[in-house]
Amino acid sequence: MTDDRAVLLDEDFARLFGRRPDVRSEAYGRVNLIGEHTDYNDGFVLPTSIPQSTIAAFGTRADRRVRAWSGELSPGDTFEQFDLGAESPRRSWMDFVQGVTQALARAGFHVGGFDLALRSTVPLGSGLSSSAALQVAILRGLRDLFGLTLDDVTLAKLGQRAEVDFVGAPVGIMDQMASSLAQPGVALFIDTRSLAYEQVHLPADTELAVINSGVAHNHAAGDYRTRRAECERAAGLLGVPALRDLGPETLGRVLTLPDPINRRARHVITENQRVLDAVAAMRRGDALALGRLFSASHASQRDDYAVSVPEVDLLVTLAEAEPAVLGARLTGGGFGGSIVALVRRGEASGVAARVAAEYGTRVDRVATVLVPQPPRR
Predict the structure, then answer these.
(1) Phi first, then psi: what are they for 83, rounded to 5°?
(2) Which residues contact 147 (CB under 8 A, 6 or more apart)?
(3) Dihedrals φ, ψ of 30, to 5°?
(4) Could you report the per-residue pLDDT of 45-75, keeping only the tens digit for each?
(5) What percent of the chain has pLDDT over 90?
(6) Which of 89, 178, 187, 189 has the smallest number of Cβ neighbours within 10 A?
(7) What are phi and psi of 57, to 5 degrees?
(8) What are 34-51's pLDDT values in tens digits?
(9) Exposure pattern of 309-324 as b/e (b: 16+ CB <10 Å)?
(10) Could you give the maximum distance between any two Cα atoms of the chain, in Å?
(11) Are 351 and 359 in contact (CB under 8 A)?
């Protein structure tokens, strides 16, 4: 974290809790380059980290109480609190904190009471994994504060368990893996079944643009749950443990399933193949092929998986009208959120600014350019 953010967080902590923090931690948001809705189908994903992050400051307590405050979500200097072992859902951001402590306890890790102050620059509901950044930042801080023996993969698993079991969002593990393991400027190719991962570089003549549509999404909402249930039904009807176990050669049989689960399955199967093709394109530095895969992925999300919305489709259309853009797609769980565009190196700032400006003339929304980060004023 920057010195300015660290100083501000220390001041928050001292104002709230009357002392300096013992430990600080940080976790970055992520943008998924390709491989959407494949993680909970045991498939392949290809995320990378973004500059926006969640930072956390911690101090130990002598009792079993947890007191927590968020610079973005708490009213004024009011913190919320609960006792370890008495976690209870509140349907607020505090469920992510409670979910983490419950997941740690169920996995046999002991933590005592603590005070916690948080600040984040990862936009909420943007499809850029603000919840995973929150969970990973908390888990990293607790690992340091209480000397927990937690490797980065186990940490990601615990973050996922917190979100699935306590928050009630049926997410896959991609977001937590990316937040825990991804490095700036490098994509992380993950097999979500085995949790094997590998770093892969973008073609040298490209860079990314990420633009938030201003339409917020919610993983705990019904549409996301419906898509996951549709995939599970399709896998059951096709006699496989997960859609990961089916390749493109099975699409003829897949399309005999009832609509819409046939289209949901087709998206997952073809998206898994697109991830593999994208990794191959990146390894050989083939930017044109990678861009075509971005565009095909968006079409599949829009038409087969039905998770896009008109505002996101408009952003993609505007981006792909730019000569320097090789391909663009919805990134994240959908039903709002952000797009990611593959752009010729040196052009991303100008492209993103023009797209965001034109978007604002077409819809009653404000698009926010997240990558590249705008210059500080």
Answers:
(1) -105, 135
(2) none
(3) -140, 155
(4) 999 999 899 999 999 999 999 999 999 999 9
(5) 88
(6) 89
(7) -125, 140
(8) 999 999 999 999 999 998
(9) bebbbbbbebbbebeb
(10) 65
(11) no
| Structure-token pair, residue 344 | 């010729």
Residues 231-241 pLDDT 10s: 999 999 999 99
pLDDT of residue 218: 62
Q: Can you list the alpha helix ranges (DSSP code H) found in the chain?
A: 3-17, 94-106, 130-146, 152-161, 174-181, 222-238, 251-254, 261-283, 287-303, 310-320, 348-362
Residues belonging to the chain: 377
How far apart (Å, rounded) are the C-alpha atoms in residues 248 and 226?
23
List CB contacts of 175: < 8 A, sequence separation 6 or more. Answer: 30, 47, 129, 131, 132, 160
C-alpha 20, offset from chain centre: 31
**Which helix (DSSP H) or strand (DSSP E) does residue 15 occupy?**
helix 3-17
Q: Pick the closest to residue 153 from 202, 117, 188, 114 (CA basis).
A: 188
- Cα radius of gyration rounded to whole Å, the chain: 21
DSSP 79: P
| The pLDDT value given to residue 377 | 46
Set out the domains of the chain in order of their start, with CATH numbers: 3-198 (3.30.230.10), 204-371 (3.30.70.890)
- Tell me how far apart the alpha carbons of residues 23 and 20 are, in angstroms, rounded to a whole number: 9
Catalytic choice (39, 42, 95, 175):
175
Q: Would residue 175 show up in a list of annotated catalytic residues for this protein? A: yes
